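User: Can you fold this complex?
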Amino acid sequence: MKGLQSFRYFPFVFFGCIAIVLAFIVPHFFTVRNIINVLTQASTLGLMSMGMAAVLLVGGIDLSIPAIMAFSGILGAMFMRAGGNPVIASLIMVSVGSIAGCINGLAVAYLRMIPFVVTLSMQAIATGAAIWVTNALSVSGIPTSFMNAILYKVWIIPLPVIVFVLLTILFELLLRRSLFGRWLYSVGTNVRASRVSGINTTRVLFSAYLFSGMMAGIVAIMVTARLSSASATMGSSNVVLDIVSSAVIGGVSIYGGSGSAVGVMLGALVITLISNSMNFLHVPYYLTLMIKGAVIIAAIAFDSFRKK
Amino acid sequence: MDPYLRLTDVTKSFPGVQALTGVNVSAYAGEALALMGANGAGKSTLMNILGGVTMADSGDIRIDGKVAHFRDPKEAARHGIAFIHQEMALLPTMTVAENMFITRFPSRGGLIDRASIEVASSKVLQQLGCAIPTRTKVRDLSPGECQIVEIGRALLSKARIIIFDEPTSSLTAREKDQLFRVIESLKKEGKVIIYITHFLDEIFQICDQAVILRNGEVVGGGRLKDLTRSEIVTLMIGAEGTSVTSISRGKVSSDPVLRVSGLARSGVLDDINFTLHSGEILALWGLLGSGRTELARALVGLDPIDSGHIEIKTNGKLHSVSQRQTKQWIGMVTENRREEGLLLPCSVRENLSLANLNALISRVWPFLDRKKETRIGVELVERLNIKIHDSEQAVKTLSGGNQQKVVLGRWIQRSPRIFIMDEPTRGLDVGAKAEIRKIVNELAAGGMAVLLISSEIEDLLELADRYLVLSRGRIVAEKPAGSTRNELIASAADDSLI
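Assistant: Here's the predicted assembly.
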C-alpha cells in the first residue's frame, strides 16, 4: 500500500526544497501576510485535491471537481442573493456537489463507464449549467454575515485554513486506520481480489466519487466567501490541472492504490507556492502554465519509475 | 566433449537473501538440460543472470570456452541466448511475420521489406514443421502456435542457447507433442536447450541431463538415464517431508452445512444438486471446462445464476441464503492467486486481514485495531509456516507457495464454515503442494467443510472423501473415497454417463 517505503517522504522533501528556493529568490516571500495568503489559497486547492486523491486511489479520475464547485457556489449564492439563509445556502452548496458526485459515481461504479469520459462530460454539463443560470455574469449581493462567518479569523488564521488542516488530519486517519480507507487502497490495488475477499467494490468506487463531489461543495462555500461572489469562471478548467498536480506531487499514484492525505496537503502547498511566486516574479501566465504542466509530467514520470 | 555453456561458481545475493551459492552448471550442444528446483530454489535468479537481467556477484559464464559478461538482456541475446517465455511475449495485433522480425525489420528504401520477412519467417516455421500462415494476426493463434512463433523468432536471431520456462503450462496434449518434436529437431541442429518445468514426466521425455537446485545450491544432477523420479523429488525438496503426513480425520460427519439444489445457469451449469457435510472434503472432478470452476464461483456470487437454491447451516439449521450472502460463511480461494487473490504490492499483514476487516474494528473508536491486526497476522504466519522475515514484507516478494498460504490464511482468520478451493496447488513445487495439502487436511479435521477443485489428481486422491464428477455443467456421477486414478480419469472422460 505504501509502494517503496523510501519514497514516502518525497512530498516533504519536495516541499522543503521549493520553500527554500522561493525564500531566496522571491522578495517579501516570508511576510506574515503572504504566508497567510498562500495558506488560504492552498486550503481550497488542497480540499479539492483530497477529493481527487480519493478517486485516484481507486484508480479513477475526476475532472469535474472545479466545474461542480463553481455550479454549487452559484446556486448557493443565488439563494442568498434572493434573501436566503447563509446556513441553508451552505447546505445547498454541499448537497449540489454531492449530488453531482453521486451521478459520477453511479455512472462509473454501477454502469461501469470510463471515469475520464464521464467526468469530462460532467465538467461540460456543470460549466454549461453555470453559465446558463448566471447569464455568464457573476452572482454578487451576498450578505456580509456569510463572508464574516466563513472567513472568521482565529488569531490571524482564517477559518478555511483551520478547516483544511483539521480535515487533512481526519483524512489521514481515515485512510490509514479506517475500514473505508483500507477499502480504497485495496480496490485501487486489485479490484478483483477485493471483490473475492468480500469487499463491495462497486460501493467503494461510488463512495469515492461521492466524496469528491462533496469536497467540491465544501470548497464552493470557501471560494464564494473569499470572492464575495460566485461565477462560472471559478471552475476554470485550469484548476483541474492544479488539482491533479497537487495530488501527484503529494505522492498519490495515478495508477491507484497509494497516496496519503498529508502528502496531498503538501502537494497543494507546493502548487500554490509556485503560482504565488510566479506572480511575485511577474512570470507571464502562459509560462506558469507550461511550468505547471512540466511539473505534473515530472511527478508522473517519477510515479511510473517508482512502480518499476 | 566440452560443454557449450558453462557457469562456474556463480554466486548472487540480494539484501537479506543468499539467492545462489557457488553454482556450477554445464550444458552441451545438442542436448536438453532440465533445470529443476522448488519455488525459491534459485532457478529464476540463475536464468536472470544468464539472460542479462541481473548480474552475478561472482563466478563466470563461458560460452564456447570464452568468458562472457552480460550487462543487459541485449548483450545476452547477442551471445545467442534466447528465452521462450511463460507468458507469451508477442504482440497480438501484429502478424506472425512481423512478430518474428520485430527487433530488426529488414528495410528497402526506408520501408519494411514485407516480402522478405514473409519468406524468411515461413521458411523458419516450415523448418519447425508448422504451417502457420505468416500473415495471420498473433491474437488468432492458439497458445501452442504462439510458442512456435517465439521459437521461430529465437532461431531467426541465430540463438544457440534456448531457454524454455514452463513451456507446456498452457498447451493442449497435441500442442505439447508438437513442441517436443520441435525441441528434438532443435537438439539435432546442435542447439543447447535449457528446460525449466515442474512436470517430471516431461523431463524424462525430452531432456538428457538434469541439474537440481535447492536453496540456491546445486544439490545434484547428472544424466537422466541414471536418475529416477523419486531421486529427483528427494533432491528437490530434501530428505525430510517428502511424503505427505496424512492426518486421520476419522469418519466424515453426516452433518450438512451446505445444500445446493437445482442450481443452473444457461449454457454453463445445469441442475446442480449436492450436499456438503462438516469436516468433509468434497472434490469436484472433471476436465477443464466441465463447469467445476463456474460452480465454485456461482456459489460465492462471483458469477450469476439463473435459478436454484443455496442453503447454509446457520444457528444449527440449514437456511436458504441468497447468492450475495454466501460470502459470510464461505471462504474462497480462486484459481489465479495473482489476479484474484492478492494485493501484490501490499504487505503480508494487509493481505491476511483483507477479508476480515470488519472484525478488526477497535472497541474504543471506529478505526482498525492495528495491534490486533498484526497479532492475528503473526499468529497465522507461524501457524501456516509462511516464510517471511517481517509481516510488513510485500506479498509480491514471496514465493508461490507462501503466497498461496497467505490467501488461505486470509480466510482461516475468519474461520468460515465452508471453504471453496479452486486449484489451491497450481503452479507450486512439490514441497509447497505437500504443505498446502497438509493445511487443507488439518482444516477438514477441524470440522471445516471443503469443496476442492484440482487438476492435480494427486491432490484429490490424497484428500477427497467423495467425488462429484462434472461434465458439461452437470453432475454425472458420484465416486467414493478410495477411487483410483484410472477410475477418475475414466469417469471424467466418459460421456456415456450422461
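Chain B touches chain A through 26 residues (CB under 8 Å). Chain B is about 30% helix and 25% strand.
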